[in-house]
Amino acid sequence: MSTAGYWPWWAGAAALGAITVGFWMAVRRPLGVTGVLARFVNLREEIEAERKDAALALADEAALAAALVAATRESFGDAMSPSLTPLPMPAVRRSGARPRLAAHALFLGGLVAGGLLSRLLRGGLASGPGLGDAYARVVCGGWRACAVLIAGGALVGFGTALAGGCSSGHGLFGCARLQPGSLVATASFFGAAVGVSLFLEGGL
Amino acid sequence: MARAPFLRFGLFGLALGFVLSEAGFSDYAELHRMFTFQDLRLLLTFAGAVAVAMAGFSLLCRDDVLPARPIHRGTVPGGVLFGVGWALCGACPAIALVQIGEGRGAAVASAIGIGAGIWAAQALRRRWRWDLGSCG
Hints:
The complex is a heterodimer. By secondary structure, chain A is mainly alpha-helical. Chain A has nine helices and no strands. Chain B has helices spanning 6-23, 28-35, 41-60, 75-89, 93-101, 107-128. The longest helix of chain B has 22 residues, at 107-128. The mean pLDDT of chain B is 91. Chains A and B meet through helix 1, helix 2, helix 5, helix 6 and helix 7 of A and helix 1, helix 2, helix 3, helix 4 and helix 5 of B.
């Protein structure tokens, strides 16, 4: 049963689960928004690292392998030279290279566009700039809300950077693989959010 | 290893943002009802997503080497601070961006806070050389 026209739980579950697995299969990178945001917080160093990466990528892989074979021959002689052909890379699929900053920028832009698209299909943008009546009732409204949002956001940013992941990286991608760090982090942030919400509601 | 095609990142961002919005994770009223157990829909959405992803990884990615997420000393304090912040601003890092797309201008304040928080954590990590075992 959906409230306020939102998807029923099973539809959201199927879609989010498919995105979590599909993201890994499509780009061979762990899903996680915090890590992506951190790159843009650190923009200057990331651009520098990207420039070095680009220089390294110019080095030809075949030439590198040939140079390694030549160096090995020089050290150990020709005794085992017939077997000295570079082996093909193992077929194991593991995490790939960090994508270009522009690819991650597109990912973050996609999140914004996804919210926009959802609202447009449902007949227009959110009414008013705030987070709604419920937020004003439970937390606070007006300009005071602005300060609470910045402070709350700072806790979110600091906490996710400290825990090494957020609701996507730990909550979905990590928990789905029963990773201990992700299970503990998810229990911590969920428990804390429940505690604070019950406190604000007056139930604690 | 070859870099993944560029556009796929945009498509998955779009899909994730769209689904989070359609499921109601970006609506503070829905989120608050989840955190106070007044409505289990979002809780079931999240738990179901983990179950679906678990099945997907074990069926489709059995031979892949997926990155490990061990417990480190930032896991619990970081998780707790994140949870407190999430309850106060109604946004996790992805949701703040989705909310901005939905036209909820107040989420810009949350996003600024999130950026500042990440920056502060990085600065502290550099200052005291914390090894949190986290990765990009």
